Amino acid sequence: MDITVVGAHGRIAKLLHPILIEQGHSVRGIIRKEEQAETLDEMGVEPQITDIEKETDISDSVGDADAVIFAAGAGPGSGKERKYSVDRDGAIKLMRACQANGINRYIMISAMGLDEPRGNEVFQVYQKAKAEADEALINSGLNYTIIKPGRLTDEEGTGNIKVGDLESGEIPREDVAAVIAASLENEPTYRKSFDLLSGDQSIADALSNLG
Predict the structure, then answer these.
(1) Which of 54, 57, 125, 131 can bridge 80 by disulfide, Cβ–Cβ 3.0-4.6 Å?
(2) Would you say the pTM of this structure is higher than 0.90?
(3) Residue ranges of the chain with per-residue pLDDT less than 50
(4) Handedness of CA 2, 148, 133, 80 (dihedral sign)
(5) Quick one: angle between helices 173-183 and 11-22, nearest 10?
(6) So what's the pLDDT on residue 118?
């Protein structure tokens, strides 16, 4: 498949690219900063420099892909405005690009617990922005998968997870990347939104139980 990843220099995305390439996919990575292009080149990813906050139409940058993955985020140090302009509006711009370019498959990294506001004001805005992006994707008509991990860690992935409607917990970024890759052409994940934590099932078994 030809896959376009938005937020291609993020920590999950950089763990995801090698998996996708090993599976035989071609990957285009949308990034905001020119200095990030060399890293993607070295990984075998085609860099596409596009600021999804500033551009109204990103369909040319997305290109003629078979699937897209939204892995972008404003980041923990950003203010309220960027939670909307990146986490919500960037995701919606990618939906519009899919509709314009005839791309049906859309995978999005979201977050757990968005229906229970918590934390400081900025974090609550982040939750609201992510929830609105999720709702927009569900109503977009696209073949979506919304993956909602718990607290992310940099520990080595175990390959064992649990999915569904879960309570709080954590999961290594490496396992999130593996779940994204495993979901691409996995019918039980189609038009599904699910929480994701470390668990005791293999990724293949856990995702098959979504069907």
Answers:
(1) 125
(2) yes
(3) none
(4) negative
(5) 40
(6) 79
What is the pLDDT at residue 211? Answer: 73
Q: Residue 57 and residue 201: Cα distance in Å, rounded?
A: 40
Here the tokens at position 134 are 């999720």
For strand 192-198 and strand 160-164, is the pairing parallel, antiparallel, or unpaired? antiparallel
Coil, strand or helix at 147: strand
CB 73 within 8 A of CB 86: yes
The answer to whether 138 and 193 have CB atoms below 8 angstroms apart is yes
Confidence (pLDDT) at 73: 87
User: What is the SS3 assignment for 186?
Assistant: coil
pLDDT digits (tens, 9 = 90+) for 153-195: 999 999 999 999 998 899 999 999 999 999 999 999 999 999 9
Q: For position 174, what pLDDT does the model report? A: 98
Nearest to 122 by CA among 86, 78, 152, 71: 78
Nearest-Å Rg of the Cα atoms of the chain is 16
Residues in the chain: 211
93 Cβ partners below 8 Å, 6+ apart?
52, 55, 56, 57, 58
Active site residues: 126
End-to-end CA distance of the chain: 23
Query: Which sign does the torsion angle of CA 173, 176, 180, 181 carry?
Result: positive
Q: Look up tokens 């906050």; give the residue.
A: 53
Domains defined for the chain, CATH in brackets? 2-208 (3.40.50.720)
